Amino acid sequence: MKVVLPCLLATTLLAACAAGPAYDSPYALVEPGNQSAARRETPVFIHDVDGQIPVAQRYGIPIQPGKHVVIVHYSHGAVEGAPEKHVRRIDLEAAPCMRYRIVARHTALVHVEWEPVVYSEPIGECSQRFPRG
Predict the structure, then answer these.
(1) Distance (Å, rounded) from C-alpha 100 to C-alpha 117?
(2) Which positions ≥6 away from 15 have C-beta within 8 Å?
(3) Residue 32: closest CA among 50, 45, 49, 47
(4) Which of 6, 27, 69, 113 reaches 20 to 30 Å from 89, CA-CA?
(5) Which residues 6+ apart lie within 8 Å of 97 measured at CB?
(6) pLDDT at residue number 121
(7) CA dist., res. 37 & res. 103, Å (int)
(8) What is the pLDDT of residue 8?
């Protein structure tokens, strides 16, 4: 136990240092959206961004502004059918200081048909730190 704690602490510090530079310039965030029964939407699982699997899908994933490919998965508890049925590719043009929340909108619950929907909103902290000029 005494050896594990220092290793865990070192790993945590290393991860924090590695994540730092993403916020040194204007950035965007990609994250799962919120569930809405009224809109028939459910959060998706963000599998990868530009071929890189994020370390923590629970929080916003920082990306640089520009073009990105986001792969999302959604499963409604049913695993029937082809695996491709549960995966979608999103081509995202990320703007500086914007948050992108991705959800699955159900078009038919019987056969678990869905399409990804991307909602965007400004990131206030980023916009204040990096004003457009």
Answers:
(1) 10
(2) 55
(3) 45
(4) 27
(5) 26, 27, 28, 122, 123, 126, 127, 130
(6) 97
(7) 12
(8) 45
**Do 48 and 109 meet the contact criterion of CB atoms below 8 Å apart?**
no
Helix or strand run (H / E) with residue 133: none
Half-sphere exposure for 5 (CA within 13 Å, toward CB): 2
Q: Phi, psi (5° rounding) for residue 22?
A: -60, -25
> What pLDDT score was predicted for residue 2?
54
* Distance in angstroms (rounded) separating the CA atoms of residues 82 and 107: 18
Count helices and strands (H / E) in the chain: 2, 8
Q: Which helix (H) or strand (E) holds 4?
A: helix 4-19
Beta carbons of 117 and 102 less than 8 angstroms apart: yes
- For residue 102, count CB atoms less than 10 angstroms from its CB and return exposed for 0-12, middle for 13-18, buried for 19 or more: buried
Bigger pLDDT: 39 vs 113: 39
Query: Tokens representing 92?
Result: 């995202």
Hey, where are the domains in the chain? 26-129
